[in-house]
Amino acid sequence: MKVVFIGLEGYNSPCVRIRCYHFAKILSEHGIETEILSFNDHLAPDIKDTDMFALEDERRLTLTRKALWRLLREKNETIFYIQKILYHAVAPFLLYRFGRNKFVLDYDDWDIETCGLFINTLFNRIFFRYPDNLNILKYVASNALFCVGASRSLCDILSKFNENVFYIPTGVNNLKFKKLEKKKNEKIAFVWTGIVWGKWIYDNILFLLDCFSEVNRAYPDVMLKIVGSGQWMSKAKGIVSKTYKRYNIEFIDWIHPDQMPEFLSSVDIGLLPLIQADSLWFKSKSPTKLFEYMTMELPTVSSSVGEAKHVIKDGYDGFLANNREDFIGKMKELVENEDLRNEMGDRARKKIEAKYSLTSLGKQLFDVFQRDKIWR
Fold first, then answer.
1. Residues 94-109 as b or e (16 or more Cβ within 10 Å = b)
2. Read out DSSP for 305-350?
3. Cα(136)–Cα(129) distance, rounded to whole angstroms?
4. What Rg, from alpha-carbon coordinates, does the chain have?
5. Which domains does the chain have, with CATH numbers?
6. Backbone φ, ψ for residue 194 (5° rounding)
7. Whether pTM exceeds 0.85
8. Is 372 or 346 the better-scoring residue by pLDDT?
9. pLDDT tens-digit series, residues 194-252
10. How far apart (Å, rounded) are the C-alpha atoms in residues 373 and 371?
């Protein structure tokens, strides 16, 4: 058996790094031949990963032709592992429609309503029979060999279209993410990492800044480090310089994923605010940053939304918060209690190793490929 993992973005993007590159590595260790086709890394390395969604249809079609030419070299028995339905899915799905390769559909967040298919819906009709994203999802998912969802919410959605749906979270490489020794007597530092790509994430940053300012008034020595990039990051910096300038807030530009463990070893408490409780996107997303915080032994304060509330056991290996006062109160509790921080961090690491490590999740994916029923 051979599996080709196909993603739109590159290694820098968590969905492709973990669900393509890392899953492929684990499967290969179990004896399955694997390969990766990243549109960004292999077909368009000149384009920034965040710009892959903003290309004109002409460039999308050019990349599709390149991918089709590349995938035509694969034997009919090769399985295509398609990470989400974006325009990179056209080439492998066309080969399926031509009676060649079977495919697996993987989803790690709910972006189907705003996803990067074609601007001209005529192309969507040609390649996927339908002009709209939801019908395209139903059509593609129903023809998949099986589907993989990174959250319970996504599995519930995909199960409406395919009887073979498997829950495999995004997880984290716990062998690479290991806490290094932290220097003594440093200030307690909170951390948020991510890409501020739009208003939803920006609003969560505003909530975070408000909560932290309240904590910092009570504990002037604590710090907040915001790490990442994105189109809206400059707005977040502007708000801090205008409204929160006197607080201990530091912005750090994008850090390469392979250097993130070293950075996370220098902070103390992870933060995951998700104030859009009714958003299907936040309910469905598999929280990569949460897994990274936990495996680095960081106690985390997270909104009790989506997959996070299934991962964290409140008060045991992290905190779940339901509102602003709750969030602030639990941030303060962690500042005040070093023993609690250490105990929660230790339990968080053990949970990741047992349930959310790439080794464990990769074995789950390998076992799925071995199931007889999906080949019938």
1. bbbeeebbbbbbbbbb
2. -TTHHHH--BTTTBEEESSHHHHHHHHHHHHH-HHHHHHHHHHHHH
3. 7
4. 21
5. 2-171+358-375 (3.40.50.2000), 189-356 (3.40.50.2000)
6. 155, -175
7. yes
8. 346
9. 988 888 899 999 999 999 999 999 999 999 999 988 889 999 999 999 999 889 999 99
10. 6
The Cα–Cα gap between 205 and 272 comes to: 10
94 backbone dihedrals φ, ψ, rounded to 5°: -65, -40
- Dig out the tokens for 15 from the structure: 């969905």
Pairing of strands 249-253, 223-229: parallel
Tokens representing residue 224 in the block: 């907040």
- Measured from the Cβ of residue 146, the count of other Cβ atoms closer than 10 Å reads 22
d(CA 103, CA 240): 46
pLDDT of 300 strictly over 60: yes
Q: Say yes or no to pLDDT of 186 above 80.
A: no
Closest CA to 342 of 130, 140, 177, 188: 188
Segment (H or E) for 291: helix 288-295
Instruction: Say which DSSP state 259 is in.
Output: G
Residue 359, token pair as written in the block = 């080794």
Task: Provide the 3-class DSSP secondary structure of residue 223.
Answer: strand
The torsion angles phi and psi of 313, rounded to 5 degrees, stand at: -95, 105
| Core vs surface per residue 110-129: b (16+ CB within 10 A) or e | bbbeebbbbeeeebbeebbe
Span between the terminal Cα atoms of the chain, in Å: 16
Residue 133 CB: number of other CB atoms within 10 A?
18
Render pLDDT for 254-293 as a digit per residue (tens, 0 to 9): 898 889 999 999 999 999 999 987 788 888 888 999 999 9
Tokens of 162: 């395919």
Q: How far, in Å, CA of 267 to CA of 250, rounded?
A: 12
